[in-house]
Amino acid sequence: MTRFAVLLALAAGAAALAGCADRGAAPANGPGAPAPAAAVTETIKVSGMTCGGCENSIKSSVAKLEGVREVQADHAAGRATVTYDPAKVDRAAIKGAIEKLGYKVEG
């Protein structure tokens, strides 16, 4: 390899390292990264659901709330299971989203 090729390869490597915006930053999931908020999973009794369409309506409406991570609804069992960040959304907001659709939340 000629000196020119070696210098060119070194310069390219240095340029690639210099352009790295994350150099020196704490990794997103390593030490120094902010801890993820603790999630709460709650099962809510819901009456009035009769089909899969009802389940989908609840899932769609509740999933739009900021802080909701996962929603499952089961019309046969009459329940919705919601995993959420209590720092961003509370049970009252989830209950309100379900009741706004015309279903009744028990408890």
CATH topology (level 3) name of the domain at 40-106:
Alpha-Beta Plaits
> Major sheet, described briefly?
4 strands, antiparallel
Radius of gyration: 25 Å
Q: What is the spatial order of strands in the main beta sheet?
A: 2-3-1-4
Anisotropy-based shape:
globular
Between the first and last Cα atoms, what is the distance in angstroms?
77 Å
Strand content: 15-25%
Describe this protein's structure.
This protein has 107 residues and is α+β, with helices and mostly antiparallel strands. It has a domain at 40-106: Alpha-Beta Plaits (2-Layer Sandwich), CATH 3.30.70. The chain is built from three helices and four strands. A four-stranded antiparallel sheet has the order 2-3-1-4. The protein starts with a helix and ends with a strand. Residues 14-29 have low confidence and may be disordered.
Keywords:
107 residues; Alpha-Beta Plaits; 3 helices
Short précis:
By secondary structure, the protein is an alpha+beta fold.
List the helices and strands and how they pair.
Layout: H1 3-18, E1 40-47, H2 52-63, E2 68-74, E3 79-84, H3 91-99, E4 104-106
Antiparallel strand pairs: 1-3, 1-4, 2-3
